[in-house]
Design a protein that fits this description.
Elements lengths: L14 E2 L2 E2 L5 H34 L6 H33 L2
Antiparallel strand pairs: 1-2
Helix pairs in contact: 1-2
């Protein structure tokens, strides 16, 4: 017999990028925060590397690729880590304090 999973179509709690996040535990909140921060770092670094390649081809000189990491990827990754942590942490704190 196959299991059937039901999805609550009437979920009205908080969402993050379309995913319901209102029932996350503390571990899930920390895990999602770090996953968002790391994914943002890699995506911004990729865009930074593309930007360095375009700048190198326009200026006809060699630039240092560490610019993409230091000036694009790292600040954006840290910013997204803080924003996601603040948002998901506030949802967790609101849900935990609501039980008291």
């Amino acid at each position: 017999m196959a299991k059937t999973y039901s999805v609550q179509p009437d979920y009205t709690g908080p969402r993050f990028l379309g995913a319901p996040v209102g029932d996350f535990s503390a571990f899930q909140t920390v895990l999602a925060t770090f996953a968002i921060g790391v994914a943002s770092f890699f995506f911004a670094t990729f865009l930074g590397i593309i930007g360095v390649v375009v700048a190198c081809s326009i200026q006809h000189r060699v630039l240092d690729f560490s610019i993409a990491y230091r000036l694009v990827g790292l600040p954006f990754g840290i910013l997204m880590l803080l924003l996601a942590g603040g948002y998901l942490g506030s949802i967790l704190i609101r849900r935990v304090t609501r039980g008291f």
